[in-house]
């Protein structure tokens, strides 16, 4: 198994929270969803149009999408079809929201690739349970309290990192950087992708800043001359070594 091992909690974590994109053109409903998702500890982004959501998804991929069926610009049905056609979003968890409750419509929504289907009006607690359940199935590493690889353990709730018996002291940025890399071991991230997902998509800093923080992270992780679990891929970026702890 080429992934960091994840220990699942009973609810969404407050730190390192999964990101949810709410695509809903009814402001009151979008606000209700955002309020309850944020209360559960999720990070929420909202858009009202299908074409705007598509553009946002090209910039950065969330952990789950709540997608209304009827949207201006591009319909939710068509947007879901496009997401499944793109390699980057082919497995992105999607829950479709609709006022259409007929069986034929549910089948249609699921047939274009939606993972779940919720009919309006819906129970908010049930919706939250569906979100958590889908994330646990599709992205267990994003709802994990603890990420473990070899002798390295990262705990999101305590914000602590240990390597064997040694505590690794990291700054907030180095912690987020390690957390993000450990979630997807083996995947190579460019500096621009790391800036978007670790620092924030609106941040305006030089990409060389990533190199500085990777250097600090490596120094902390290898203070006792341990093997460096961070790989530099020349001309591409950085990744967490998927073979670390398995040799």
UniProtKB/TrEMBL annotation:
- BP term (GO), one: phosphate ion transport
Q: Where in the cell is it found?
A: Cytoplasm
Q: Which UniProt keywords apply?
A: Activator, Cytoplasm, DNA-binding, Phosphate transport, Phosphoprotein, Transcription, Transcription regulation, Transport, Two-component regulatory system
Q: Which SUPFAM superfamilies does this UniProt record tie to the protein?
A: C-terminal effector domain of the bipartite response regulators, CheY-like
Q: Which InterPro entries match?
A: CheY-like_superfamily, OmpR/PhoB-type_DNA-bd, Sig_transdc_resp-reg_C-effctor, Sig_transdc_resp-reg_PhoB, Sig_transdc_resp-reg_receiver, WalR-like, WH-like_DNA-bd_sf
SMART domains referenced in this protein's UniProt entry, alphabetically: REC, Trans_reg_C
Where in the sequence is 4-aspartylphosphate found? 68
An annotated GO cellular component of this protein is:
cytosol
DNA-binding residues per UniProt? 144-242
Q: Where is the OmpR/PhoB-type domain?
A: 144-242
Q: Name one GO molecular function term.
A: transcription cis-regulatory region binding
Instruction: Provide the function of this protein.
Output: This protein is a positive regulator for the phosphate regulon. Transcription of this operon is positively regulated by PhoB and PhoR when phosphate is limited.
Protein name (Swiss-Prot/TrEMBL): Phosphate regulon transcriptional regulatory protein PhoB
Which species is listed as the source?
Rhodoblastus acidophilus (Rhodopseudomonas acidophila)
């Amino acid at each position: 198994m080429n992934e960091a091992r994840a220990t699942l909690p009973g609810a969404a974590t407050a730190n390192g929270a999964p990101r949810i994109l709410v695509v809903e053109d009814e402001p009151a409903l979008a606000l209700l969803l955002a309020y309850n998702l944020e209360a559960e500890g999720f990070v929420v982004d909202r858009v009202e149009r299908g074409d705007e959501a598509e553009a946002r998804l090209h910039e950065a991929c969330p952990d789950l999408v709540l997608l209304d069926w009827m949207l201006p610009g591009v319909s939710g049905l068509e947007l879901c079809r496009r997401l499944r056609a793109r390699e980057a979003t082919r497995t992105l968890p999607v829950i479709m929201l609709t006022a259409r409750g007929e069986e034929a419509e549910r089948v249609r929504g699921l047939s274009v690739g939606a993972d779940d289907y919720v009919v309006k009006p819906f129970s908010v607690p049930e919706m939250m349970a569906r979100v958590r359940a889908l994330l646990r199935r599709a992205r267990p590493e994003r709802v994990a309290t603890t990420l473990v690889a070899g002798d390295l353990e990262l705990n999101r709730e305590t914000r602590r990192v240990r390597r064997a018996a040694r505590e690794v002291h990291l700054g907030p940025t180095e912690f987020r950087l390690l957390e993000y890399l450990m979630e997807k071991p083996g995947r190579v991230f460019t500096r621009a992708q790391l800036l978007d997902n670790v620092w924030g998509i609106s941040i305006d800093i030089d990409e060389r800043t990533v190199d500085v923080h990777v250097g600090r992270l490596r120094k902390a992780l290898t203070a006792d001359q341990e093997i460096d679990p961070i790989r530099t891929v020349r001309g591409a970026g950085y990744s967490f070594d998927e073979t670390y702890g398995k040799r």
